Amino acid sequence: MKFSCYKSDLTEALAFVIRAVAVKPMTPVLAGIYLKAEGSMLELQANNFSTGIVTRIPVNTEVAGETVVSGKRFQEFIRNMPDDTITFSDEDAGNTLAIDSGGANVELLTMSASDFPKVKTPETDRVFKIRTTSLRDLIRRTVFAVAKDDSRPVFTGCCFEIKGDKISLIATNTHRLALASEQLADTYPNSSFIVPADTLRGIMLRIDPKDVENYVTINYSTRYLTFTFDNVFVNSRLIEGVFPPYDRVIPSSSTTHVTTDSVEFKNAVEFVSLMSKETEYNTVKFVFADGGIEISSNSPEVGGAIKNVEAQIEGDDLEISFNVDYIADVMRVVDSKQINIALNDKYSPAAFTEPDNENYIYIATPVRA
Asked: How far is CA 256 from CA 154, 203, 329, 337, 357, in A?
């Protein structure tokens, strides 16, 4: 096997495919990445049996072939190669892959390609299509809200909910919830399933935000789903379990309505968060009164920080506290120039929405401070 390719293409592909490399492999080959050079394409595969990823990049192949290399080591060396073009060859030795770039040379031990479990297409009975950029945006606006603790697996993924020509992604860790929706080009049977967050983060990474013309084909069953687009194929095991009735936590009314500039509010929250990191629960206090928002945090060991933001406030004045991460996270995905905040009292969840987007809502539960 002998081929050459651009470093940037391979680096991007490896950042994506490495997500399916087994962390604690049952056999060494599962810690590897499968490479197959043929014609003008290099195929890369990784498979940990819960997730399988296949992606392809353009290459110049002199001698076709296939091999398996250690995923982690391969990615590290490729990332640090000095030149824009990299050449690969295993012709001089049967169990090593020689990598050359700009005067830098490395040889990596290889494993047999025949031992690698190739990524297969699982049997599925349902399918729908969505624009790639729409899927990326749905993931971006929700996946951050999943639970990090895997004691309750259903909260470690995003629930996909399809109702006719509308798809919604919902994520929650029981203390906050993000819900984003999008219209589909066609109508599909109603269904719902839960996709692991890490699979979705990988998909988001691989979608070009400027590629507004392409579509993702998603096939799914009760246990698996696959994503197919461009030169990418991903299969993933779905998370078993029933997602809770999320609509119950969305407030139906509010007594305090706030509208403020998104950028100013985001910057103020991030400024005060520098102090809140010194508190036990990352707590930040918000006071909504007198045509503005006072954002503050105090630490007995360090001191205090405060920032004021102008706002339009209708209804009752209110003082409420949040884990600052729950507010900072949502402000990083807000695209509108303004943000709406609907509140009731210091113990009830707050709803964050965008004035020009009825398809997104974020709920944050306050901290009892």
From this structure: 33, 38, 22, 20, 20
